[in-house]
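Example complex used in Figure S2.
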Amino acid sequence: MKKNTTTPQRRNFLKNLGLSTLPVLLPAASMASELTWDTSNQQQVPVNFIFDGLWFSPQAYLDKLQAINQKQAIAPDYYGNGGATQKLETAFAKITGKEKAIFLPTGTMANQLVIKLLNGNNTKVLVPENSHVFRDEADAAQEVHGKRLVPVGKGKPFFELQDLKQTIRYYNEGEVFRSGIGTVVIECPVRRADGAAIPFNTLKAITNYCREKGYKTHLDGARIHLASAYTGVSVAKYASLFDTVYISLYKYLNASSGAILCGKAEVIDQLTHQIKVYGGTAFQTWNATAMALHYLEGIEDRWKKVKVNAAQVMSSLNKLEGVQINKLTNGTNIYHLKLDKTIDLKVLANTLFKGHNIWLGRANKEGIVKFTINESLLQRTPQKIVDAWKQALGKAKK
Amino acid sequence: MKKNTTTPQRRNFLKNLGLSTLPVLLPAASMASELTWDTSNQQQVPVNFIFDGLWFSPQAYLDKLQAINQKQAIAPDYYGNGGATQKLETAFAKITGKEKAIFLPTGTMANQLVIKLLNGNNTKVLVPENSHVFRDEADAAQEVHGKRLVPVGKGKPFFELQDLKQTIRYYNEGEVFRSGIGTVVIECPVRRADGAAIPFNTLKAITNYCREKGYKTHLDGARIHLASAYTGVSVAKYASLFDTVYISLYKYLNASSGAILCGKAEVIDQLTHQIKVYGGTAFQTWNATAMALHYLEGIEDRWKKVKVNAAQVMSSLNKLEGVQINKLTNGTNIYHLKLDKTIDLKVLANTLFKGHNIWLGRANKEGIVKFTINESLLQRTPQKIVDAWKQALGKAKK
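Predicted assembly (796 residues):
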């Protein structure tokens, strides 16, 4: 009961993602009930161009878990021990090439606890200005853990080695009572930069420097598989640069919630106690971890297909009059869609949603729709998706 | 991946509950896989005399959520806002008679955060020695929140007003640098005292005194409905004595995890930020809250029936040779079962489990089985349960 009304909060939730993804088909508060995305009356499985994942309704979520359980009985965990949760931890340790992995209820807890542990008695943590840890974790580092987050690369999609060096100099040379810098955090792909994947050489240069200077490194890899899918750099290769890596379970692995933190045993072994005292040791988590485990299996092959299908869809759509979908610098699964003024976006999105169960986000102030690719593209052939767009564009022509 | 092996941990989990509830039918490590309670091959829905709730397998949990969703579509929450989670919060605010209620991922987080908030700048919190907050929350208060937990009533099932006064005197009169006592915590029913419900007059005397002296009061009411069911004191009446009350969602409301904290708006409104910075703001929680909401509805009526059925079952069992089930002082849903030496408990429990899907816990060192009543008793008629026992006792006779 955070506030007294529900609807405005949900709208804010979607708006505040900073994605401008609130579908144009839901512009009025009176229609906000549709935000539950209950498409159970629809004949077709949804294809969405809004989220990183499938964005299940409760019905779809339960159906999927039932199917997973039918295939092989889900083993429950108890307080995070055993069962699907342990299987997922084992799988992630292997994928990231780290000694151990551990489940946490949120990415915020994963980032914050590991930063605290890596940082030791040092007070400063260098983080990207354009990051979840700096902008979306509500000053947890300062308020809860007594660590000061120092932003690097202000105004940039991501910082370069020279930005980092400059920031370090500013503090190390300019403060009379010099206090320690312990850890450097990098987020990749960068959510607040439309999913930009930081070039591997940049990551390598930064982490090499950190290792040389004795700074610990943490990767906020909430969506690391999305970077991998587009750069061809494996998750293990990304992870190898860092002491620890956090990966989200709900952004593209379709779990209801949860996070995984991977690293050396000497770090991860400390987490069990830390998660407990910070209040994160939930009774059972298989509801989330069994789902993530399912979508983790074969993810690389599926994303290869997603990319092929997406390329076909976008190539075809780009040939249609008034439609322009542009790739971004260092882009991953997010593109910029711009429509000619002769096309009514609202009518287009409404027609796609109601007639074809295809979801399209709303435009930002610059008239750009963040056109987001995800596994829902595998639910239908590219041709069917393009045909739906053609029909809807016909209706949306002013 | 807390450790390298699963099985010993799960065994420890059950053992460490302090209930000695690890079923006697699962004595050997080689059988520990059955700890998942996968009874999908069984014809009958389980009746358990071990837990406070139904202890669903993943299959049973998913089936139940599907049924709930079929009856009325579950509305999802987003980061705890809206949907089933908000409905549950509203319901709990009403039930406890408090202004507001909020969902948290764990009872530990609920207890710890509210103690911190209630205590203000005071450093000491008085807690029952025999409590979850003192024994099962891993020094979170001291380590994370800088609050010192002072145990009251050492060695007793629960403390009385005179114990509290004595402890307060010890600190207020005996310390040179007197530091503040801010909050008094009470747990009811007391898990570590076989579910004893503290007499209402004792609670009233203590909380009246606290109010008079300006101490805040928090009720760890993880299983408060179980106290209500046996004492006839309503949840609202219990809650009315305290500033805040926490109630568990997974102990008898059958959710996979979660907790609810209720109190005045001025306290609960602070929790949204607190939960976020401590890492508890999970993406979606309807998986747990829709289940708890379902079992919250009509709980009082169901427990009236549970008590009637349980009385019939226990009365009949007590007439059987060699079986003795005893009520406890201030007891709620836990009884002490003692078997005559002529009965082999292991054979009895095995026969009940394999032949009738009835679960019985193992005995403690004193030969006592904690015979626990819960809603699973409503799954079968008392007569059928008693008949099953008769058959199993016949087999278990040495």
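Chain B has a mean pLDDT of 91. Chain B has two domains: 7-57+300-396, 74-296.
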